User: Fold this.
Amino acid sequence: MSILVSILILAGAIFVFLAALGTLRFSSMLSRMHATSKALSFGLLLLLIGVAIFFNSTAVYVKAIMVIAFVYLTAPLAAHAIAKARSTKHKDKMH
Amino acid sequence: MSIEIPDIVIYIAMALVLTALLFGLIRLIIGPGVSNRLVAFELISLTILAFILLLSVATEEAIYTDIPVIIALVSFIGTVAISTYLKQKGK
Assistant:
């Protein structure tokens, strides 16, 4: 069980790191948003599952499920809002 | 609490998450325009969420897992508020 928790925590941290690397290195703003909204959500999913298995209590499981639901419901909405705000500003540079 | 995981796992994960925070800070400084800074702001807030999760594992305090619930809500509200302001201003 400790190996499972270690693998989940390391994989989540690696996904968070790769999301930040994509945000730093990608060339256009829409590709940066692609890295931030998807890879970061998946990394947080892995980290939260690992932390919930580590503590192994009901309250932590409930909080982990709440955070996963919030992040997976609100990350696409936030990315959509940012993209809409940009597309009303630069109508000619979308493609 | 019965699970023991090695310290080196937590240290490596914390180093990766803090490097991610540094990358987000660099993008927040150099990013051209408000949209890139908004993306960097979202990245930084969710990275701090990940770091607090790792801190709760390192100190073995389960009460720290309250904080990510609040950060997940407040960062979403902040991002939507700023982008709605920009959208109204662009019209």
Q: What stands out?
A: The CA atoms of residues 29 and 37 of chain B lie 8 Å apart. The radius of gyration of chain B is 16 Å.
